[in-house]
Amino acid sequence: MAEAICEVVITADDEGWFLDFTRALVRDRLVACGQHITPVRSIYLWQGVIEESVETRVALHTRASLVPAVLERTRSEHPYDVPCVLALRVDQVNPDYRAWVIASTRDPN
To answer: Would you say the pTM of this structure is higher than 0.90?
Structure first.
């Protein structure tokens, strides 16, 4: 069976830091790519107060087996106390794109 891939969504408010973080994940072959979308307006409840902020959102494409490493790296380096990290398993994908994601990331074993 073909190895599954995931899209990992993360948000941050410092676009410069976020671009550098994404480049590092690609360089270290934890992800094949990161597609940044900015601006994203976020409205959320934080410590009992409704907050609103402008953020950047990235969609990272990687092997499902590398999601724990991406999550741990994000938790250790992200400036937020509680960063948004959502891993969405991809059920339907262009087989050529899937093969590129697998080839562009490192085998976790």
So the answer is: yes
